[in-house]
Amino acid sequence: MTTVTLPPQLERFATEAVATGRYRDVSEVVAAGLSLLQRQEQARAELLASVVAAEEEADRDGHFTADEMIARVEARLAQRGRVKV
Q: Are 52 and 64 contacting, i.e. CB atoms less than 8 angstroms apart?
């Protein structure tokens, strides 16, 4: 079994969470926190992978600056008669 030392404020929080009946014991509180951290890290990895994929696509297919994209959108909307440019 692994021993974990918590800072006083987190130890109080964990103890209070157990006292309210939300968790059976402090180990369950720590496991819940680690599970949340694991999901957060997975989401971060997925976001990073999508950014890398987008950068690779831009390098391969070219890209527009933000100003170019705004101009293209405004021109397209103007063609549809929705915006006066």
A: no
Band (pLDDT 50/70/90 cuts) for residue 64 is: confident
Running DSSP on this structure, what letter comes out for residue 78? H
Phi, psi of 41 (to 5 degrees): -65, -35
Count of CB atoms situated within 10 Å of the CB of 26: 17
State both tokens at 78. Answer: 């103007």
- Cα separation, 19 vs 82, in Å, equals 60
Angle of helix 8-19 relative to helix 26-61, nearest 10 degrees, comes to 110
Among 51, 33, 55, which residue's Cα sits nearest to residue 43?
Answer: 51
